[in-house]
Write a structure and sequence with these properties.
Structural class: mainly alpha
Strand content: under 5%
Order of helices and strands: HHHHHHHHHHHH
Helix content: over 70%
Number of strands: 0
Distance between the termini: 17 Å
Number of helices: 12
Number of domains: 1
Length: about 290
């Protein structure tokens, strides 16, 4: 599909360029940038800032740019991506609360990297994914250790707001739109959720990210506005970041009474969301059909 082609080109061409620009902006050579990303951002005083810069650039130049280019080929990008439709505040509130209610279940479903074992020919891929997950967790922990107000705000922008906007533009706005045109609602939503999970290349959260992706897909389908999915995604991301900043013990959310209670609340809120919007409001514009 065109979206994946644009995304792949971005990974091959724009991301190496981003690494070079980032190194240039922070006075670092290519080898120094690679060393910092290899696991010790503290080797340079600007290590945390460089990491945030690269994460922000990756979101914009991969998911965001691909979605915008695809939409531009089909019509007015805001209309194609369903960004021109303002949702009701009650829809956004309910969708956000549903996502927050899923946090304990997400924590419980996430596998530790060392517990991931793939069979046969996939074993090497499993080891690589495990190493990648461990490196990513190490870098994120190091960045989130800075609890200053400025650092927390920067983390919310880079790791909560930007992923919510850019990933929703690509997966729900562009990819799910195309799959809905071909297959209709439910199959498109579940396949988009699966691809959303797989393309994060983090086996530790494969199942939990699938569930979140499906929920975000249904939010768009029923509300007809991508802003519902974006703001719900942001609420989920920002809550997790603030929990880290406040040193909230993640084990608290894994207690079964908490998991079952939050899932029950999220399920009730989802049915309430459906009651407010009995029929899906999502529709393709005439030039998209």
């Amino acid at each position: 599909m065109l979206g994946f082609l644009v995304y792949a080109l971005g990974q091959l061409i724009l991301i190496p360029l981003l690494l070079w620009v980032g190194g240039l902006a922070f006075g670092l050579g290519w080898s120094q940038v690679q060393a910092l990303l290899g696991g010790d951002l503290g080797l340079h005083p600007s290590g945390h800032a460089l990491f945030r810069f690269l994460q922000a650039g990756h979101q914009i130049l991969s998911w965001g740019l691909a979605a915008w280019l695809i939409a531009s080929l089909l019509g007015p990008p805001l209309a194609v991506l369903h960004l021109d439709r303002a949702p009701r505040p009650s829809w956004v509130l309910l969708a956000s609360l549903i996502m927050l209610g899923c946090i304990p279940a997400v924590l419980t479903l996430a596998l530790p990297p060392e517990d991931i074992h793939l069979p046969g020919a996939l074993a090497e891929l499993g080891r690589e994914l495990q190493q990648q997950a461990l490196r990513s967790q190490s870098l994120l922990r190091e960045v989130f250790e800075d609890h200053s107000t400025l650092a927390i705000l920067a983390n919310v922008v880079v790791f909560a707001a930007l992923p919510a906007v850019m990933e929703e533009m690509f997966f729900r706005g562009a990819l799910q739109r195309e799959l809905m045109r071909l297959w209709g609602g439910h199959r498109a939503i579940w396949l988009t959720g699966l691809l959303f999970s797989l393309l994060h290349l983090q086996a530790t959260g494969l199942l939990s990210r699938l569930v979140l992706g499906v929920l975000l897909g249904y939010f768009l389908w029923y509300s007809g506005s991508l802003w519902v999915s974006i703001l719900a995604h942001f609420a989920f991301n920002a809550t997790n970041i603030l929990a880290l900043a406040l040193n909230v013990d993640p084990e608290l959310g894994k207690a079964w009474p908490v998991v079952l209670g939050s899932l029950a609340a999220a399920t009730f809120l989802f049915f309430l969301f459906r009651r407010l919007i009995p029929q899906p409001l999502y529709s393709l514009s005439p030039y998209e059909k």
